[in-house]
Amino acid sequence: MKQQHKSQKQDQKLRDIGKLILRFMNKKASKIYNYKQIADGIEYKNPRQRELVLQALHKLRAEDKIKETDRLKYIVNLQITDTLTGVIDFAANGNAYVKVEGIEDDIFVHQKNVKDALQGDTVLIVTYHFKGKKLEGSVLEVLERANDTFVGTFQYVQHKDFGFVVVDKKQINNDFFIPKNKMNGAKDGEKVVVKMLNWDENSKNPEGEIIQVLGLPGEHETEIHSILAEYGLPYDFPPEVEADADKINKKITAAEVKKRRDMRKILTFTIDPKDAKDFDDALSLQKLPNGNWEVGVHIADVSHYVRPGTILDDEAYKRATSVYLVDRVVPMLPEVLSNEVCSLRPNEDKFTFSAVFELNDKAEIQNQWFGRTVIHSDRRFTYEEAQERIETGKGDLAEEILTLDKLAKILRKDRLKHGAIAFDRMEVKFNLDEESNPIGVYFKISKDSNHLIEEFMLLANKKVSEFVSLTRKGESTGNTFVYRIHDDPDPTKLLALKDFVGTFGYKMNLANSKKVAESLNKLLKEVKGKGEENMVETLAMRTMSKAVYSTENIGHYGLSFDHYSHFTSPIRRYPDLVAHRLLQHYLDGGKSPNAAEYEEMMKHCSAQERLASDAERDSIKFMQVKFMEKHVGEVFEGVVSGTADFGFWVEIPENGAEGLIKLRDLMDDSYFHDAKTHSIVGMRTGRTFQLGDNVKIKVIKANLVAKQLDFKIVD
């Protein structure tokens, strides 16, 4: 029996190594590899590991997944018609699509052919033309799981001593089977985190173990913790990380000050949201004898305290970003650093990393300097206080703020003239009571004080990037650096946007990149204050690529910058911390390090940023549903904000809440979705609900667990 268990274990191990090998070989499926290249490629380097690689290769060859072209030389067997590797994305009905790099259309996989794949997994599929029609695929195997933990509700099956976890995520159609010894104290109906253990080939359900009980569905803490668990985001720090942070030398020592440019005597202040505690950046201003202005952009010197290779740095990298939920911040760094030591609080000396610019009255740069500094912030402003000084010209430091505002406005105008796009989206914010219940909704709108800070941060980010990447003559240095890149908009989406806004009488010129930017800015200006403003902004946003981090610089389309990095928020973004370290390395005369390691880091940071923004969006949805609970049965004016095959969404402009109207609930006709015109059309009557239309709705249901509102049309 023991022997059998051992051989099963060995078999599983070889299967796992086989998956690693296929994943590595599929990156370049037409290449022939020798076994040493394969072993190196999956980082199996010692003799014992290499022996396992050989065994796994024999197994793959026996299963016809690879071919041996020569002694110990292998190639992926593409004869199994065509095998491709991609990421699987499930629809709510159980069918799926696999996104393969380099192939424009996603490959359809029928629900009966998805095997044991789950949402987001990297899978190996075999493709074929079903009944001679469109290309379809079948999952051969899962090469890499996207997740092994899931959030759901535990359902205990009485008298059977086992249970199931029904996963919250709509794209996961499989319940997890939980044996008695893996329930770990969970009670029927509780929300839990389940860890996937295995999935037997002959079983309909994966087997899991409950690793955390979150609480009762619908309760505030349960739902917020569910959102964090859903995206694998932590909500507290391990004790050893806290201990590491507490040990840091927090003193401003004379020896360290000596190594820095001392700017403590120069007027310096911060401008931040009223509820902020982590002040990343400060501005200093002084008039120079030649009549020019010296503006210092001072950024918390996190790299002085958080050193590579420490537990603290490992944890910061793992998180990669702070997460801003409606009722709390989940910081990247422990509070002692994020809100105390590194935060540029007023009336305290602080270590900073600075970009100092000499500007003339036309905001043209005459000189620039980058390096480590020590500053002393004289005043903390909220955006509202700074705005008051801009509007009235009264109050302490009004003159200085007005000077910076004037310079910022010139910088902004120049940026927009050169093709930057002015997206100024309104953000939904909530007034919360002591129990974190939403008692009011308001919209955060960017004003001059926000733009003032934004322009100087953009300037610093751009100039740091240029300093590292270009010689004085403007040629490339070839130095490894971390960029914030943003690709050009998707041409097909732009064309669709042009056609669609054309029906509202708006014109767009897509002749070239510059014309596109001009058209977008003109369009965004023209829709301001109109009924269709939100919808047109949303559609324009959807034409855009997502900005990501990379060592390969392609420039930033939205800002119209050839060089751009993130340098200004190292308390809450890991790439900024990396940018600080690299900049200092070059200031010290260091050679350019290998880019591959940094590219890997940036991929991780981009992925974490996506998770954080999804979690933030979910927390807003949850709060909106919670806010609307007390309005069930009431009637509101709304705007059609989205359409789909099964229904359409309506947004209530006064509070930003969005609800779904299902097609099956429209009783006066049989309706279908016209994707091209973003409309829902009645077959008999021709009655139409189009994106941007004003409609009257009644709130029918507020489901906190699903974070969903159901509306019904009121005639």
Automatic annotation (TrEMBL):
Catalytic activity: Exonucleolytic cleavage in the 3'- to 5'-direction to yield nucleoside 5'-phosphates
Top EC class, one word: hydrolase
Location in or out of the cell: Cytoplasm
Domain S1 motif residue range list: 633-714
UniProt-listed CDD domains: S1_RNase_R (cd04471)
Record's keyword terms, sorted: Cytoplasm, Exonuclease, Hydrolase, Nuclease, RNA-binding
PROSITE patterns hit by this protein: RIBONUCLEASE_II, S1
EC numbers, comma separated: 3.1.13.1
Pfam families: CSD2, OB_RNB, RNB, S1
Known function: 3'-5' exoribonuclease that releases 5'-nucleoside monophosphates and is involved in maturation of structured RNAs.
Family: Belongs to the RNR ribonuclease family. RNase R subfamily.
The protein's name in its UniProt record: Ribonuclease R
Protein source organism: Cloacibacterium rupense
Biological classification of the source: Bacteria, Pseudomonadati, Bacteroidota, Flavobacteriia, Flavobacteriales
